[in-house]
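Translate sequence into structure tokens.
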Amino acid sequence: MLPKHTTQLFSPAESVRLAIVLAGASLAFAHQVCEVPAAVDFAFFLVLVVVVGIPHGAVDHLVDEQCLKYRHQNFSTFRFLLKYLVQMLAYAGLWLIFPGFSLLLFLLFSVWHFGESDMQPAPRHPIWSVVKFALGSLVLFFILLREPDLTGDLVYRITLSNPVAREVWTTAVIYQRPVILGLGVLLLCSFLLAQHREPVKHSGRGWLQFVVVLVVVSVLPLLPAFAVYFAGWHSLNTFQHMNEFLAAEGSDQSLWKKAMPFTLLAIVFLAGVALFWWNVFSHLDPLPVLFIFFAIITLPHLLIMHRMFRAKTVLQ
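Result follows.
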């Protein structure tokens, strides 16, 4: 959480974050004073994911190339795309056979990914791993609790009406305060111990922005709440981490421009899938399929980011 030094009041990334936070706060205010159509929440979610979220995963090929370069190995775009596709197909097959296990796997990967990204820089010490996992768990659980009934219903539909999955989520909701308190205590204790063992300097300014983002998240429904965190915090942070790792001479905006080819390709692909679904499978429930599709295309990105953070730790 170390924002780049700048003589301006806000860095470009912080300016974007501020705009997203203000937009989220405005939407939250609208929810308090009137009935906001669900389409507005979905549009808010879609815009942030398309403009900020997708681009942050559209330079995975550059990150993978840099990882291989540090290991003195050659990069092949064909091999990269083939590996990406194979991982997606393998995970899609797992969803077809074991949806409940696949959901658990995705949640665990996401928890680790969020915590690993948010706690940068952090050594590869076991205690720091606990800190990352506790932070990621706390953030994800906090977001999912924005609309616990909707989340529970989605879990039930995703896992093909698995009663165990619904029971687990129902229990988590009933005991949400002890769970959040327990994760908070684990995070605080592990962080203090980790700082004692291997101290790392973090930015107070960065943590303050993190808290502001979570405050806005706390007053929003599920979809826009996730969008504010995912785009306004996680994606912008990851852009900065990737820019530093790639030793790019340009700014985060330059990296965003480099992400445009694969971003546009992803948008066209998603639009094509949506059109196909609308014409062929419009009678089926789209939300579980949308979530599973998102999980499938996200998994390779999570693995590449993990390799990047490991490589950054070695280089530090």
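Note: The chain has one domain: 12-315.
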